[in-house]
Design a protein that fits this description.
The complex is a heterodimer. By secondary structure, chain A is mainly alpha-helical. Chain A folds into 2 domains: about 60 residues, no CATH class; about 210 residues, MetI-like fold, CATH 1.10.3720.10. Chain A contains 15 helices and no strands. In chain A, helix 5 runs parallel beside helix 8, helix 5 runs antiparallel to helix 11 and helix 8 packs antiparallel against helix 11. Chain B is of the alpha+beta class. Chain B has 2 domains: about 240 residues, MetI-like fold; about 120 residues, Immunoglobulin-like. In chain B, the strands form 2 sheets. Chain B has a 5-stranded antiparallel beta sheet with strand order 2-3-9-6-7, with no helix packed on it. In chain B, a hairpin with a 5-residue loop joins strand 6 and strand 7. Chain B is elongated and about 120 Å long. In chain B, about 40% of the residues are buried. Classes of the chains: A mainly alpha, B alpha+beta. At the A-B interface, helix 1, helix 2, helix 5, helix 6 and helix 7 of A face helix 1, helix 2, helix 5, helix 6 and helix 8 of B.
């Protein structure tokens, strides 16, 4: 069956040149349509970038696209000004601490639990796992008020740790779901022979599961990283200032602070974009695992 | 094939049946230890808060519990106008976004199968997924600026509008004397004219920079028998000048459409002024006429739609949000397409089905499970919409653009700190996603 489908899809080896041209022409309208869509899709991001590299005086009188007629207007002074702004550099650091800390925590805790659900035996395992899956859809709004109160009592509100722990809890159901489903696909013989050889569970976890589960762990890590890097509501609620909250605090007068806001916004998306481009494959895999499975 | 059958073994029964001899209790302990960190986090930050919030929603605004109020908080939720607005907006989001995102993703996924650069296209459409909803809000706020010289979307609108109806040469001009009066968007000179007469149409309120190019010193044309002649000019010079009189230093206005009306008000001739502002209606039959300037001359240029204003803010937000999520939908649906049995499609084509029939009768039905996953995922996402509204909507439009998730945060954490009503809103939100939760569990159990 598969071979039939493949031979049909492949172009005939000795297709005449005229036929090829005709076929290409038939696709031209779609090519053009998709090219236009692709350009339109890029425009907002380009607009943000261009706004961030022209001085405020220029954007207040003319649109950002005028820069293509006057390339000399481009300046990185907005960026250098921001890098000397202690508020912004502090916010970037906070963002990095939250994103990295949360990613590590979720990966470690999620992998431990995912392994337990996949390969360890204990009573009620399947019901517990279904319970965890059920938690996937709990909106984080359900936890904001109690956690806010709890942090006030414990006196840890406003700390990076408070935000990391909250994010970790809400990242865990997806993490456990994703990793457990990947771990059960690891061939049973490998684990069984390791157990017969007398390896402890923690040793199996470290030496077998983690290396074999790396693709899923990478997907998960990227998701967690992007999710926490881009978060606004959690940090805003618990009084922590990562980059999103910092920009939000600058937005009261949008038109007069558009240089600061656009520059900081573009800065905030440089890291996610880099991560996205570097690990696109894992990102898409995680997405598919999370939605299709 | 043997490898595949091992990985495809039913997941929940993957572990060996019964504990290995002599290892049972220690295996239970290992399970507990591996699960402990996760259960602590889930318990303290997810389970306990969920229970607390449900209980809390039946109590007053402040304090640990703050006095039993029954279902008053829920009544507040459906009677306070700002909260009702938020619920209505969320309903609009749910009604519009999942359908659009799924449809656009499906169209893209089908079309990219026909191009060679599908990877590049996918990357471009998918890119916004990596950007925070907050930065997206900022990005689109720049796009939506109302002034067409600043907002790209309104600039496009102006280009289109200028191409359809050219803006007037003198949008801001006003008559220099009371003799010239407005009529039907244009101006008309009250003084009756006869063939051989002269019409002087003086205008002011024109900045020198706004004068059309080719403008020269205005002249009062010599009369011609049988013709009605005249001048349209900028009736103002440094120092003022005398209204209604063509003077040295005053400039003619070229390119203005002048119209000659007969006694019953019909336009009988129409012409354009030249560099010195003069015009000439030739061979006018005997009678009484009036001269005037056509409405098109004063047509205002396209001023831009108020995308960020109270009435358009929600559609603006929807567009920006669809821009983010179309890539997600496309990628998931494209994966579904790739996994589809090709021979079915080919069989349909061989049987003479058109591409549209193949799409409608084969592709879409086969993709139905994937499409519903995208649709359901989008419903959940849309109910949680929060940051993009804070970033995109200006202060003046915030009240009109609120959503349930945002209203919950505002009620509990901004201003009033009403934890009772805030909890009720959160529970309401939770109730809305519970059907989805049930669906998730059912699907999972079926797979297991």
């Amino acid at each position: 069956m598969a071979t039939v489908a493949e031979t049909v899809r492949l172009p005939a080896p000795h297709e005449r040149t005229s036929a090829k041209i005709l076929r290409a022409l038939g696709k031209t309208p779609i090519q053009i349509l998709l090219a236009v869509i692709a350009v339109l899709w890029l425009v907002p991001t380009i607009g943000l970038f261009v706004t961030s590299i022209v001085p405020q005086s220029a954007t207040s009188t003319a649109g950002w696209w005028k820069i293509f007629a006057h390339p000399s207007l481009a300046t990185f002074s907005n960026y250098s000004a921001l890098f000397h702004n202690a508020g912004l550099t502090g916010a970037l650091k906070t963002t990095a601490y939250i994103a990295v800390g949360n990613t590590l925590l979720v990966v470690v805790v999620g992998a431990l639990a995912g392994y337990a659900f996949a390969w360890l035996e204990f009573p009620g395992r399947d019901w517990l796992f279904i319970g965890v899956v059920a938690l996937l859809v709990v909106p984080l709004q359900m936890a904001l008020i109690p956690t806010f109160r709890l942090y006030n009592i414990l006196g840890i509100g406003g700390t990076v740790l408070s935000v990391i722990l909250f994010h970790a809890a809400f990242g865990l159901p997806f993490a456990i779901f994703l990793l457990r489903n990947f771990f059960v696909g690891i061939p049973k013989d490998i684990l069984e022979s390791a157990r017969i050889d007398g390896a402890s569970e923690i040793r199996i976890f470290l030496r077998l599961i983690l290396p074999l589960g790396l693709p899923a762990i990478a997907s998960l890590a990227i998701f967690q990283f992007l999710w926490t890097w881009n978060d606004l509501i959690v940090s805003l609620t618990f009084g922590v200032t990562p980059i999103t909250v910092w920009i939000f605090s600058q937005m009261r007068e949008f038109s007069s602070s558009v240089d600061v806001v656009s520059t900081a916004s573009f800065l905030s998306l440089v890291v996610p974009l880099a991560v996205f481009f570097a690990f696109q494959r894992y990102f898409v895999q995680g997405l598919l695992a999370g939605s299709v499975k | 094939m043997t490898d595949a059958s091992i990985t495809a073994e039913p997941p929940l029964r993957a572990a060996p049946p019964g504990p290995a001899p002599g290892r049972g209790p220690s295996r239970y302990r290992a399970g507990a230890l591996f699960l402990l960190p996760a259960f602590v986090l889930l318990g303290v930050w997810l389970l306990y808060p969920t229970v607390y919030t449900i209980v809390r929603s039946f109590f007053g605004p402040s304090g640990y519990l703050g006095g039993w109020v029954g279902i008053d908080n829920y009544k507040t939720l459906f009677t306070t106008s700002s909260l009702v607005t938020a619920i209505k907006n969320s309903a609009i989001w749910v009604a519009v976004v999942p359908a659009f995102v799924t449809a656009i993703g499906l169209i893209f996924a089908v079309l990219i199968e026909r191009i060679r650069w599908s990877v590049a296209f996918k990357t471009i459409i998918f890119l916004p997924m990596a950007i925070s909803a907050f930065a997206t809000g900022v990005t689109w706020r720049i796009m939506y600026q109302q002034d067409p010289s600043q907002g790209a979307i309104n600039a496009l609108g102006r280009t289109v509008s200028d191409a359809v109806t050219a803006p007037g040469v003198l949008p801001s001009a006003v008559p220099s004397t009371g003799l010239l009066q407005s009529q039907g968007g244009g101006l008309i000179l009250k003084t009756p004219l006869h063939p051989g007469g002269v019409a002087l149409l003086g205008l002011t309120g024109i900045a020198p920079a706004d004068l059309p190019t080719g403008s020269k010193q205005a002249v009062k044309p010599a009369t011609k028998p049988g013709d009605i002649v005249g001048t349209v000019w900028r009736d103002f010079k440094p120092g003022g000048g005398k209204p209604g009189v063509v003077e040295q230093g005053e400039l003619g206005i070229p390119g203005v459409t002048v119209e000659l009306h007969d006694a019953s008000g019909n336009v009988v001739q129409s012409t354009k002024t030249d560099g010195p502002g003069t015009f000439d209606f030739t061979r006018v039959p005997a009678g009484t006429y009036q001269a005037g300037i056509g409405a098109a001359t004063f047509a205002k240029p396209f001023g831009g739609y108020s995308w960020l204003g109270p009435s358009l803010i929600t559609p603006s937000l929807l567009i920006a949000y669809i821009w983010i999520w179309a890539g997600f939908s496309m990628v998931v649906i494209a994966a579904g397409l790739a996994a589809m049995p090709r021979d079915v499609l080919e069989a349909a084509r061989t049987d003479g089905a058109s591409e549209w029939q193949v799409f409608r009768r084969v592709t879409v039905p086969l993709l139905a499970p994937v499409l519903s996953v995208v649709f359901i995922t989008m419903i959940i996402n849309v109910l949680k919409v929060f940051d993009i509204v804070l970033a995109l909507a200006p202060e003046s439009a915030q009240a009109n653009s609120s959503t349930i998730a945002l209203a919950m945060w505002r009620t509990a954490f901004s201003g009033s700190f009403d934890f009772g009503t805030g909890s009720a809103i959160a529970v309401f939100l939770f109730l809305l996603v519970i059907p989805v939760l049930a669906l998730n569990i059912r699907r999972f159990r079926r797979e297991a």
